[in-house]
Amino acid sequence: MSYQNILTETDNGITTITINRPSKLNxxxxxxxxxxxxxxxxxxxxxxxxxxxxTGSGEKAFVAxxxxxxxxxxxxxxxxxxxxxxxxxxxxxxxxxxxxxxxxVNGFALGGGLELAMAxxxxxxxxNAKMGLPEVSLGVIPGYGGTQRLPQLVGKGRAxxxxxxxxxxxxxQALQYGLVNQVTTPEALIETTEKIAGKIxxxxxxxxxSAIKAxxxxxxxxxxxxxxxxxxxxxxxxxxDFKEGxxxxxxxxxxxxxxx
Length: 260
Ligand code: COA
What we know:
Blueprint: E1 6-11, E2 14-19, H1 30-45, E3 51-56, E4 61-63, H2 68-71, H3 76-95, E5 101-105, E6 108-110, H4 112-119, E7 122-126, E8 130-132, H5 146-154, H6 156-165, E9 168-170, H7 171-177, E10 182-184, H8 189-201, H9 205-217, H10 225-236, H11 240-250
Parallel strand pairs: 2-3, 3-5, 4-6, 5-7, 6-8, 7-10
Antiparallel strand pairs: 1-2, 8-9
The protein binds coenzyme A.
């Protein structure tokens, strides 16, 4: 598939999706959101992709937010629709993918940019990254899941402060908050992220899918995550990966998971 606003590349099991509007600091317009949906879907369905990395092009920004020029004149109904459609197409979609998604946060991750990074399964940041949800400085609130995912990741008090002040935190503070898992130099960001992806790929992809479903169940309304864990745990026993993993252990050799 060809795209106007993103780049995609698959190599050694890793699909890298790069948001590529550097002159607009990779701001997410509707077209980019649709393209990202298509690219994530394609990668998730591809047998070649084991891990997805999402990052921004250029040295300055991961994504500096939703494209403000697109919604400045919106009505109440259009505003609500923008948030609903964005959550469905991209943010919830990414959070619920069962192919691991890592955000490599290479600069500003503001508004929709931080919301996209938070929708990923976890985040690695370069030391020049700056993160925040500045929406209230524009007279609006985060609409792509930020009011829900930020408190889940950093706790309610810190999320309240970040959202109310519209301030930015740097990569080290984000690390201290648990918003990102690791901080690297800008030069080492992709390599470090790929190394983590490599560690993930050594394991059973079907077990990882089950683990993602069980972990995500903890954050779903009306769903008992412990029950989902029991169900997914049981399902693992019917997979070829489980047979291979346990046999490899018992025979003191490395597993070669079929991914089934
Ligand atoms: N939507 C649309 N355009 C954006 C954008 C956004 N969220 N963020 C940056 N841009 C555009 C700028 O308008 C500018 O375009 P131009 O050159 O055509 O004027 C270009 O990207 C470069 O941004 P600029 O503001 O000149 O860079 P800077 O280094 O001075 O400031 C930021 C960087 C990130 C601090 C600043 O761009 C900013 O505050 N962006 C908006 C962040 C935001 O509020 N996001 C939440 C949206 S809900």
